[in-house]
From TrEMBL:
Protein name (record): SH3 and PX domain-containing protein 2B
Source organism of this protein record: Macaca mulatta
Iron-sulfur found in the keyword field: no
Chain intervals with Gly residues compositional bias: 8-17
PROSITE patterns reported for this sequence: SH3 (PS50002)
Domain SH3: 36-97
Length: 97
């Protein structure tokens, strides 16, 4: 069980079946070169993570790879912090101007 508890591996707050078709979702979520700017978001506040999610600070830039209707988005850090990817709450993000 513990081997499935890596950062960001449980999907949005461990809700289950998100990501069963992760390869399909990843292929659909990869933006084209022109669409990359549309997937860039910046953190508007600090977020305190827990054992399943990473913390980040205001100003961290993310590439959004997958959006879930639960409000948790799968993102990769592009700048402002060491690179990592995982599920984060979308209400902490705003589209990068």
């Amino acid at each position: 069980q513990d081997d499935t508890r890596g950062k960001g591996s449980l999907g949005p707050r461990g809700t289950g079946k998100i990501g069963e078709n992760r390869e399909e979702a990843a292929a659909a979520a990869v933006p084209s070169a022109d669409g990359l700017k549309d997937s860039l978001y910046v953190a508007v506040a600090d977020f305190e993570g827990d054992k399943d999610t990473s913390s980040f600070q205001e100003g961290t830039v993310f590439e959004v790879r997958e959006k879930n209707s639960s409000g948790w988005w799968f993102c990769q850090v592009l700048s402002g912090a060491p690179s990592w990817e995982g599920w984060i709450p979308s209400n902490y993000l705003r589209k990068k101007p």
